[in-house]
Design goal:
Heat Shock Protein 90; Sensor_HK_TwoCompSys; membrane; about 70% helix; 5-stranded mixed sheet; transferase; Signal transduction histidine kinase subgroup 3 dimerisation and phosphoacceptor domain-containing protein
């Protein structure tokens, strides 16, 4: 699982845990209410009603998860509503059970389609719950039921709003995950189109020339063998030229440029939420050193994305008369056991291969934590040929 998908999954898990904690809190309230029920109606009745309430909580949590996914069934809403109505009437014995109906209404709102339906559900739930609240009160007046209904409607509406906000957040997470996957596929498609476009521009003229020259050679063979041979030599030269250009193009794809890699890495890190500063490449930097440093930038940026939660990443390039030093430094490195972070008790496979590239041109690569939470990759390359270093 890549880093983005892992973050989405973690956010969904945290969101679901908040609903589980709500159910646990209400379950504890049922437990305390059972003590009151036991004193008024006997232990058997209290145990039976508490068991029914816990079963009701389990069904509500299942309906909540289905509602967050947009798959809540009407049958579950109705069955849970009937159970909630029955448990609400327990308020005649213990007033603490008034939270049953608002809790059911909040979960049921996830299955509704419009704001009007949610408002009607909350109003009806509040009006029904207000009856036992009013009738069990000590001072019952003509205003008691409307006022109680209004207060319960506010409580129920806020509960429903909280649950609907969670559903809205879940939908945003799902859409963001889909958008990230689509962006990755689009990037691959664009790269394929770019390669196809380059190959077309590269080979189109040469292949057309080869086709014309070959056709001409075929026509002149019977009348002028010498000219036909000349045309075939042109075909041979064109084919070899096309082959050289294809090889050079493929080498260019394989060996990244430092300029292009810095821009690419900056864009990728910015998309991941990491601010990145990178320098301008001096024009006098030799192509060989630039290619090796481009690989350093690519591997270091990969480690930033895979092994950290970086918020800032800086890339510096210092050039002297005899050497060039590239440093990639990032924060957001979690605390782990030695060896978990590449460079800490031994580099990872990527850095090991990168070290070989750097050493092949006479350079030196170091990677490791500099301070708590920070990691740096430093590559130092000579600006003179390797043979002259001896």
């Amino acid at each position: 699982m890549d880093d983005g998908a892992e973050r989405f999954a973690r956010a969904r898990k945290i969101l679901l845990r908040t609903y589980d904690l709500t159910a646990v809190a209400i379950g504890l309230a049922f437990g305390f209410g059972a003590l009151d029920l036991s004193a008024k109606a006997g232990p058997a009745v209290a145990a039976g009603l508490t068991g029914l309430a816990l079963w009701f909580l389990w069904r509500i949590q299942r309906m909540t998860r289905d509602g967050l996914q947009g798959t809540a069934a009407v049958r579950d809403v109705v069955v849970n509503g009937v159970v909630a109505a029955g448990l609400t009437l327990v308020m005649f014995l213990s007033p603490g059970w008034f939270m049953v109906a608002p809790f059911w209404a909040a979960a049921a709102s996830l299955a509704l389609r419009s704001t009007r339906q949610v408002a009607a559900l909350c109003a009806a739930t509040a009006a029904f719950t207000a009856l036992p609240v009013t009738l069990t009160g000590d001072d019952v007046g003509w205003y008691s039921w409307p006022v109680t209904t209004l207060l319960l409607a506010i409580v129920t509406g806020l509960s429903a709003f909280t649950y609907l906000s969670g559903k809205w957040l879940m939908e945003i997470l799902r859409e963001a995950e889909i958008a990230q996957e689509s962006q990755a596929r689009l990037a691959v498609t664009e790269e394929r189109l770019r390669i196809a476009r380059d190959l077309h521009d590269l080979l189109g003229h040469q292949l057309s020339l080869i086709a014309v020259k070959t056709e001409l050679a075929i026509r002149v063979v019977p009348v002028d063998a010498g000219r036909a041979q000349e045309e075939l030599r042109d075909v041979q030269r064109s084919a070899r030229s096309a082959l050289r250009e294809v090889r050079a193009t493929i080498r260019g794809y394989r060996d990244p440029s430092l300029d292009g890699e810095l821009v690419s890495v900056g864009g990728v890190l910015a998309a991941a939420g990491t601010a990145c500063d990178f320098p301008a490449v001096p024009p006098e930097l030799p192509a060989e050193q630039g290619t090796v440093l481009a690989w350093v930038v690519r591997e270091a940026a990969t480690n930033v994305l895979k092994h950290s939660r970086a918020r800032n990443c800086s890339i510096t390039l210092v050039t002297t008369a005899s050497a060039v030093t590239l440093t990639v430094r990032n924060d957001g490195v979690p605390r782990r056991a030695p060896g978990d972070i590449p460079g800490d008790d031994g580099p990872g496979d990527g850095l090991a291969g990168l070290s070989s590239r750097v050493e092949a041109v006479g350079g030196r690569l170091s990677a490791g934590p500099e301070e708590p939470g920070c990691f740096a990759v430093v590559a130092e390359l000579p600006l003179v040929p390797v043979q002259s270093l001896a």
